[in-house]
Structure of ABC-2 type transport system ATP-binding protein:
Amino acid sequence: MPGTDTAISAISLTKRYPDVTAVDAVDLQVRAGEIYALLGLNGAGKTTLIRMLLGMVRPTTGSLTVLGRPVGTGRGGPWADVGYLVETPAAYPELTVAENLHLVRRLRHQPHNTVGEVIERLALTPYAHRRARTLSLGNAQRLGLAKALLHHPRLLILDEPSNGLDPAGVAEIRALLHDLATQHGVTVFLSSHILTEVARLATRIGVIHQGTLRQELDTDQLPHHLHRRLLVATRDNPTAAAVLHTAGYRTEPHDGALTTTDPAAVDRPDDIATLLVRAGCPPTRLTVETEDLETYFLRLVAPDRNQP
Ligand SMILES: Nc1ncnc2c1ncn2[C@@H]1O[C@H](COP(=O)(O)OP(=O)(O)OP(=O)(O)O)[C@@H](O)[C@H]1O
């Protein structure tokens, strides 16, 4: 049984469609107060998993509790404490932003002033009296987030919340979600296909690929997972390679230089420099390169894909 500090608990959660297993035996525990990012390529199973969390899609097998309550498609779930945004949010197109929010407010039994507050919080003040159908994609997304947040939920479940936002909007939403989690104890579960973005926001990342959860990692451990290599160039690379080989380092030629992933070399480039200077082959270039986050992500989810 999940404890009270568990916001989401899924055990062997599976959704099979006739042609594809969209989510395949996923075990997931999200702790209260975490910002958990589900990361995956298009078609990985993110939306299906999120729809199951919200009771919009019935799992084929597996069990699921949200805020300690079993999720069914009927009434009586944890929904009063949950805010959500799934794909491009729907709004009444002929109603204004404020009117749309007042409708949600009445359904959620919230006081009148919550609408003004959430409009301000989501930087929607200039658009409050614009019809929803005239909003840009980014502002429609903001309206969707406003609807999700209006009733001060304890858990936010967001499918691609940065979808359609420009870089300033992405940064704003990131700051907002960070503030909700750290200052107000809100648990945030979100999906994304952009590792660089979630790496700046999430406390934990789950990588989903072809319906299975391939890896979970704490974001602060991310640097330890990135591949590193030492790149060294000299005026005579074949001789340098021979010197390093004799000293026990395996190198490979790369673009006018030599590279090695040997941790002893990557951690101590000064040793390599000393060795080469003593052999009369001083380095003209010596750098440690760290894999970028996107390359790491692709390596995790699609090792068979051609990478640059
Ligand atoms: N209602 C459905 N009927 C049949 N197959 C479906 C259905 N919904 C999703 N799928 C399939 O399940 C798989 C996972 O889809 P899903 O939408 O969950 O992925 P996703 O990670 O959210 O992708 P994206 O980033 O493109 O939104 C895909 O192969 C998709 O075609």
Summary: The first helix runs from residue 46 to 53. The chain has a mean pLDDT of 91.
